[in-house]
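Action item from last week, closing it out:
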Amino acid sequence: MSEPTHLTAGTISLPRLAGWEDRTVLTMVGPSADGAQPNVVVTREQLCGSMGLGGFSSGWVQKLADQIPVTETRPVEHIHVSGAPAHLRVVEWEAAGLRLRQLVALTTIDGSGYAVVCTVPSSRFDALEADLRAMIEGVQIVADLATDASTS
């Protein structure tokens, strides 16, 4: 049997408790290397009515910087994720003695903010960057299903 070409989380449903909000997270991990396991985490969160891509993108980096010392290593790139305008950012930080680098695609679709966060040891970033960019290009977001799931 061949490996699936896409990881889909559309088979899980759970009741939402009053006052709780959906912060969907999808995670994929790669083989361990240089003391860390490369991973891709996709998150979704509802945005306030007036927040657009710029606010979500800069706020995402600021929230990370509030938790750990982080450095943006390149200028923001303007790309598309699932047909929507997006920002691509590269950030680097250290945790537990490991230097990590993240390739992060941020987009807003139908009132939700999506972050596609690819984390790898800094020493492996150059070797994996093309594959990570290809994976980001292949992300498919079906916003009407995500919205339906968060309101039911």
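Closing note: The chain has one domain: 25-151.
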